[in-house]
Amino acid sequence: MTPELELANRTALPDPLRVLIKEFPREQWKTNPNYSQLIAFWLDRHLMFRRLMGQLNDDLEQVMDRNMDPDNYKRSLSRFGGMLINQLHGHHQIEDAQYFPVMAKLDKRVSHGFDLLDSDHHAMDGLLAGLAGGANDVLQFDPGKKAKFKDRLGDLHGILDSFGTMLDRHLIDEEELVVPVLLKYDPEQLR
Ligand SMILES: [Fe+2]
Ligand SMILES: [Fe+2]
Hints:
By secondary structure, the chain is an all-alpha fold.
């Protein structure tokens, strides 16, 4: 894969993979007769990931501004951070094992897009491990040590920022490939 298509560098799907999103623009998805429960459910999972990111960012701002007690913050971080990481892992596994192999066969013009999404998932494995590490450094912070709690929070802030940017890129590009393919071909295996 060329470097400009990697998740960290991409700013949109490349033009050859945009044929179907041009035919099925996002504003018209919901009124398409092939808009299925599966599409609605799957987009809803993405919305949940976006909301969890929003929660993690808001909480971090609150604790950095001293508007949230560190113990409350840790409880929330453990709960919502754990949820994001676990749910994303499970979501990627289902996409790679069940969704993408079916979708990749439906339209030759965009089939290599599913390899792109698969490589995004591999990139995100590393990012998720980094996020877990940054969160654990905050959760296991020992006040007796020299390092400052706010430095740990600052590190996590940086990790969350870049994680959020790449998660967002992945979700948008994935939606622009997957939903048009499902609307156009309405495959029996994925109803
Ligand atoms: Fe994905
Ligand atoms: Fe997804």
